[in-house]
Amino acid sequence: MKKLIFVLTTIVVCLFASINASAKRVSVIIPDYDFKVNDTVIDYKDSIYPLISYKDITYFPMTYEYCRYMNLTTSWVEGEGLWIAYKPRYVENPPVYEKTAQNKKMNTAAVPGYPIYINGEKVDNSKEEYPILNFRGVTYFPMTWKYAHEEFGWETSWADRIFAINKDASN
User: Fold this and answer.
1) Long-range pairs for 33-37: beta carbons < 8 A, 24 or more residues apart
2) pLDDT of residue 97
3) Model pLDDT for residues 124-146, shown as the tens digit of each residue
4) DSSP three-state, residue 18
5) Are 60 and 138 spatial neighbours (Cβ–Cβ below 8 Å)?
6) Residue 141 CB: number of other CB atoms within 10 A?
7) How far apart are CA 130 and CA 126, in angstroms?
8) Rounded to 5 degrees, what are φ and ψ at 112?
9) How far apart, in whole angstroms, are the C-alpha atoms of residue 127 and residue 125?
10) What is the mean pLDDT of residues 73-91?
């Protein structure tokens, strides 16, 4: 019996070590500037899914509800990965998520190892200067020109400590 427990413990330790070794971890912060989508203030600071910042780039949480609000559709295809595509639709109000007691300023996110497709094209996340991240079990996209403007058709702006997205810019 002791031998069986030792073998099982060794297997579990090896599994966790390989999982942790395969996921690259990066430091991120929860920014303190304001955020608007189509002139609607999004209260994210103590949300379970806040904005995050990595290398001074804002990252947006791609939850199911946020994706619909932001004119995106998502699908997890077993054995293939995460598929995200721009799909215009009208969702009037942003989702409201539960609040945490208070988010810490400094956090850790992972660079996901699962395949990700944007508008049908596979992303080589290992070569991205601003990779797609995973934080609290949710995929986060960098609000770079490549994603915000080229892939999703959004306009972004930064003024007076307010990051803003016009999600209907391509309409």
Assistant:
1) 33/161, 33/162, 33/163, 34/161, 34/162, 34/163, 35/162, 35/163, 35/164, 36/162, 36/163, 36/164, 36/165, 37/69, 37/70, 37/94, 37/164, 37/165, 37/166, 37/167
2) 63
3) 998 999 999 999 999 999 999 99
4) helix
5) no
6) 27
7) 10
8) -65, 145
9) 5
10) 84
